[in-house]
Amino acid sequence: MIRSADAQNIELLRGLRPQDVDLILKMARQRRYSAKTVMTHQGERIYDIRALLQGRARYFYDTPTGKKLILNWITPGQTFAGLAALSAAPHTYPASTETVRDSIVLSWDGPTMRSLAHQFPLILENAVVVATDRHIAWHLAAHVALCSETARERVAHVLLVLAPLIGQKGPDGIELDVTNQELADSTNISPYTTSRLINEWQRTGALRKRRGKIFLGSPERFSLRVA
Description:
Blueprint: H1 18-26, E1 29-33, E2 38-40, E3 48-54, E4 57-62, E5 68-74, E6 79-80, E7 96-99, E8 103-109, H2 110-119, H3 122-148, H4 151-166, E9 168-170, E10 173-176, H5 180-187, H6 191-203, E11 208-210, E12 213-216, H7 219-226
Antiparallel strand pairs: 1-8, 2-7, 3-6, 3-8, 4-5, 4-7, 9-10, 10-12, 11-12
Helix pairs in contact: 4-5, 4-7, 5-6
């Protein structure tokens, strides 16, 4: 059984009393996914709302030409892939989601979450905050980057965004478990250009790459060195 203490970071449940959170969690379905599993598919009907309890995941989009574009990353506590289920009207997923690590996900079907939102209006308030502060803000940042930033600036920007989001602090700096291909897919830049930039920054000491991972001494120093 999942307790409120285990789900205290779930953004959709922020501000609710522990006893109310416990009630909501009792109505959730828990799912376990292995790394590199596609959880929801672009274009399919949305039936539930999901929240990442443990692990790491991300959104991605398949273009008509077959190219995979990595969009936003999903970390524990974040709601994903189904805020539209708060509406009784039919909706489809605009993008797919996949796990990056072994993950545990909580889900509530649409009718259950709509009933809970009626009982606890703060759920709807939190959903609006998620939609505006995270999804719309990310969309604006991505659009501005594609329209105004160079390839160098876009790759640097993604690394600086990922540092606080998925970075792990250690003796060698901030460790980012991200590949050159993933950076290329995140920035709509060729893998060749991405690899060339990473190698250049490694030569100048802006970052280090080891065992397929990228290490930043600090985001501030990295930002100054690649400017």
